[in-house]
Amino acid sequence: MNAMESQEHRDLREAVAALGRRHGKDFDRAALWAEAGKLGYLGVNLPEEYGGGGGGISELSIVLEESGAAGCPLLMMIVSPAICATVIARFGTDEQKQRWLPGLADGSLTMAFGITEPDAGSNSHRITTTARRDGDGWTLSGRKVFVSGVDIADATLIVGRTEDARTGRLKPCLFIVPRDAEGFRRSAIDMELQAQEKQFELVLDDVRLPADALVGGGASHADGCGGEDSGLLQLFAGLNPERIMTAAFAIGMGRYALTQAVEYAKTRQVWKTPIGAHQAVAHPLAQAHIELELARLMMQKAAALYDAGDDTGAGEAANMAKYAAGEACVKAVDQAVHTLGGNGLTREYGLARLVTAARVARIAPVSREMILNYVSHQSLGLPKSY
Ligand SMILES: Cc1cc2nc3c(=O)[nH]c(=O)nc-3n(C[C@H](O)[C@H](O)[C@H](O)COP(=O)(O)OP(=O)(O)OC[C@H]3O[C@@H](n4cnc5c(N)ncnc54)[C@H](O)[C@@H]3O)c2cc1C
């Protein structure tokens, strides 16, 4: 018995690793997504009554980590089953659960998540995408940026605001916007990043939505937004899974790069021993391995707290795990590229493209500095500069 991981978790890890090995680094994203969905991996965290596995983020993070460690990370897992399906499972109406959860669980439906705005960036309190009551439904207007996978998603969960009838203040609300809704325009951003999922700038130009586009519904509440502050609660419910899954994404990528480097260092020989015998090559790889393991330990802590219902405890741990995993991933990839010498920059080995990809985990969904701010203020009680 492994004290850190149950047999069930280790079996899941091994099964996903085997699937990942079959697909490999030149994977067909849609084919892998479909197969992972069919095998029940994309919905391991969702309730059984909607076709999910009845597990939690602990299981879902294993799936993403292992697919990444095999060189075929499924980026959309961070948003579709982890954020969107979690929010709908926890706050959606019965109709919304029936409509979306079975498909999100088996991968036949995908949902993107849009919160970032050009003029708000890290300061999500400044978002201005606004919903107005329009007859029975809503009209949504605003702009989003860097939203991943909108073209391959059936809908995007858009974070907007509605005006509080009493105070006039804008408060968050989450809307499910179908891909082809009128007035919902997307343009792909020309990223240096080489990934199968594209990032989009979105324009919501008076997008007319039915009443049931609002997560949780609004009809039965005087404030029209599924209950006082429920939008904020819904948003927070998605944030911890997002950070834990980004940590899994980073750890998977870091492990993949490290594995390639270790294999290379064992066989490449330019003096009388393989290069891996030189401590200048071996020690940084050992260090990268330690840092990835440490990050995984924090990720497991965050996932365990979240799955146990401790949202507050999970908040600190999820931030720390995302930070540690992002840093460990960037260092592991950098060292892996260096270990391969000139080959580190060839397309054949495919490691150089990870230099850019690894940076994503440092920037998104919340930057390294914003996590350091969180820990400074929330954990250490230091004063704020902003
Ligand atoms: C590949 C990729 C995929 C993404 N996918 C999605 C998605 O699917 N959906 C979505 O909504 N968003 C997505 N994003 C957006 C991502 O969440 C943002 O890029 C991120 O939150 C940072 O916002 P920003 O880019 O506007 O940077 P800014 O907020 O402009 O920050 C720029 C720099 O200033 C620093 N900074 C800002 N404020 C402070 C402060 N108070 N103290 C110290 N430093 C500070 C930041 O740390 C950062 O280094 C994605 C981004 C990328 C790169």
Automatic annotation (TrEMBL):
Pfam families: Acyl-CoA_dh_1, Acyl-CoA_dh_M, Acyl-CoA_dh_N. Keywords: FAD, Flavoprotein, Oxidoreductase. The keyword Flavoprotein applies. Residues 112-207 form the Acyl-CoA oxidase/dehydrogenase middle domain. Gene3D superfamilies: Acyl-CoA dehydrogenase/oxidase, N-terminal domain, Butyryl-CoA Dehydrogenase, subunit A, domain 2, Butyryl-CoA Dehydrogenase, subunit A, domain 3. It comes from the Bacteria. Residues 21-107 form the Acyl-CoA dehydrogenase/oxidase N-terminal domain. Its cofactor is FAD. InterPro entries: Acyl-CoA_dehydrogenase, Acyl-CoA_Oxase/DH_mid-dom, Acyl-CoA_Oxase/DH_mid-dom_sf, AcylCo_DH-like_C, AcylCo_DH/oxidase_C, AcylCoA_DH/ox_N, AcylCoA_DH/ox_N_sf, AcylCoA_DH/oxidase_NM_dom_sf. Residues 230-373 form the Acyl-CoA dehydrogenase/oxidase C-terminal domain. Belongs to the acyl-CoA dehydrogenase family. This is Acyl-CoA dehydrogenase family protein. It comes from Streptomyces xantholiticus. The lineage of its organism: Bacteria, Bacillati, Actinomycetota, Actinomycetes, Kitasatosporales.
